[in-house]
Design a protein that fits this description.
By secondary structure, this protein is an alpha+beta fold. The chain has 4 helices and 12 strands. A hairpin with a 2-residue loop joins strand 1 and strand 2. The protein is globular and about 50 Å long.
Length: 199
């Protein structure tokens, strides 16, 4: 009886491992898609490490963030124009970028889209939003703000939701800058995607 029980346990363990193995492999592969190695913010001779702060803006192996004192919780050189030096791995390529203060650090995800990370409760403010293609963009800040409910948003990027078609017969894109919990984020999505910000 003892032998049968041990055999049953072994079979169950092997079955569970076989079921979970693809998940582990998939997770490990995805982790390697986009990985921030290091990030520094400041001026030559005076840089602060902002690696962990920058990682907080990642979501679904993508990032879209403006380089500002507010977003990086740092001002190592007040009154001077700073830069962020970031080293990251994207698939098998190691990349180093120098982004001036006010610039954007953007790495699209696997679907070339971006969904914001978990933000926590707090006021959601749409700062600026554009919708269009091939040089024809419409300011749709008000349209997007109208979809905010209880300081969250779950909106399909579509002509219907964004006041019409600014560029007929072209696939459009949606660019939005918003503030949540006092921090600024950016998203760059294609027509047909969902713009989601939740607590």
């Amino acid at each position: 009886m003892k032998g049968i029980t041990q055999k049953t346990v072994c079979l169950l363990t092997a079955s569970i491992f076989a079921l979970l193995l693809p998940l582990f492999v998939s997770f490990s592969w995805a982790e390697e898609d986009f990985h921030i190695i290091s990030a520094r913010y400041g001026v030559p001779g005076n840089y602060w490490d902002v690696t962990e702060t920058l990682k907080g803006f990642m979501s679904d192996h993508a990032i879209s963030m403006q380089v500002t004192n507010r977003n990086l919780d740092a001002d190592p050189a007040p009154g001077r124009e700073k830069e962020m030096v970031v080293v990251y791995k994207n698939h098998d390529a190691k990349v180093e970028l120098r982004i001036p203060e006010g610039g954007w650090f953007v790495v699209p995800g696997p679907e070339a889209g971006y969904q914001p990370p978990h933000h926590g409760a707090g006021k959601l403010e749409i700062i600026r939003a554009l919708y269009g293609a091939v040089g024809k963009y419409r300011i749709v800040t008000g349209d997007v703000q109208n979809h905010v409910r209880n300081d969250n948003i779950n909106m399909l990027v579509s002509n219907e939701n964004l006041g019409g078609d600014p560029s007929p017969n072209h696939e459009k894109e949606f660019i939005v800058v918003y503030r949540k919990q006092g921090r600024e984020y950016g998203a760059h999505l294609h027509e047909g995607s969902w713009f989601i910000v939740t607590d």
